Amino acid sequence: MYTVAIPEVKDGMIIGDNVTIGDKVVIKKGTKVDSVVMKQLVAYKLMAINIMEEEDFAETYYGKIKVSRAFRQFEQDYTANLVAYKVAVDSFIYKKVPFRLDDLLQIVKNLVPDDMTGKTLFAYLYLHTPNEEELTYAHGLNVALTCKIFAKWMGLTEKETEELCLCGFLYDVGKFMIPGDILWKPSKLVRMEYDLVKTHAYHGYYLLSHYSRNVSDHILNATLQHHERADGSGYPQGLTGSEMDPYARIMAILDVYEAMTSSRPYRSPKCPYQVIQIFEETGLQQFDVQFIQLFLKHVVDELIGNRVLLNDGSSWEVMMNNANTYSRPVLSRDGEILDLSKNRELYITGII
Q1: Most distant pair of Cα atoms in the chain: their distance
Q2: Where are the domains of the chain?
Q3: Known catalytic residue: 188?
Q4: What gap in Å lies between CA 293 and CA 20, rounded to an integer?
């Protein structure tokens, strides 16, 4: 709801709260404004009333977010800041202009104020669909924004937070050296294409180390190592967890999560619970245990209270999490309790 001065009230608006004079309700909540109602509002000498917005009619959390003023404003701000990031990247790639790190950090401040929660940011990014030609830029921007939230969860200092956010902006810059039709190919890559894509880690490291020497060793390491895995199964050097820079270990997690939970022109975003299940099945061996457990715990904590859709078509509310199986929380509906950790036939397919 939002407050509207009486002279600004228009026909068709829906009144959000009961209008009372003394103890008497004179106009009920939900009344549609027409000429008769307008005369009443003027006669009662009211200064302003609450008016319902689209989000007030939505039944689900994501439904409310999608039509909210705040999300519309975020999309406008996101578009403007994505342009700024794109200009910085293109200037670096094509003209070798070093990154202005303060300008990149300002983008994070513009889009993720200190009081924004992970729940809000993840909902915004989940609902936002970038243009096809901006996918690589949007991926870097989204990871940088997520870094701000993860840094808060980790309790990092301001300087450490800035360093992590800069890693998010720059770690994947080598992707801009890979042809877009290969990079965003909707079908499975053939071996030669995959080998080409894997070179982006070296490309990024080379470009940053030679043409933007104001970046730190942590950023360079994150660029080179973000596809390494704790069990040694990654690339390009086959490092193990102890050999990886801690910032690279974090970027490895955020890179995968963002890629799978964001919209693409050729597919819808994966449900966070589906991605969490993938992490639970393989991630505990491939990613830093401390970082992945912290990340997953906070992600699922932010999802408590949301309504979810199950594979049988039923909808439930997330009531509480299972500490040992984050992808299978305890759900509730009309007094009924469903523990997904004890019912393996059912699973979450979406957040609604």
Answers
A1: 77
A2: 2-52, 74-269, 274-352
A3: no
A4: 51
Q: What is the DSSP secondary-structure string of 122-160?
A: HHHHHH----GGGHHHHHHHHHHHHHHHHHHHHT--HHH
**pLDDT tens, residue by residue, 134-156:** 999 999 999 999 999 999 999 99
- Just give the CATH number of 74-269: 1.10.3210.10
pLDDT tens digits, 23-64: 888 888 888 888 888 888 888 888 888 887 766 666 677 788
The CATH number assigned to the domain with range 2-52 reads 3.90.105
Task: List all residues 6 or more positions away from 51 whose beta carbon is below 8 Å from its beta carbon.
Answer: 1, 2, 3, 4, 9, 13, 14, 15, 16
SS3 call for 63: helix
Residues facing residue 338 across a β-bridge: 331
Angle between helices 135-154 and 69-95 (to 10 degrees): 110
E runs forming strands in 1-85: 2-5, 19-21, 24-27, 48-51
Q: C-alpha angle with apex 31: 25 to 32, nearest 5 degrees?
A: 150
Q: Please tell me the distance from the alpha carbon of residue 35 to that of residue 143, in angstroms, as a whole number.
A: 51
Catalytic residue among 64, 66, 119, 175: 175
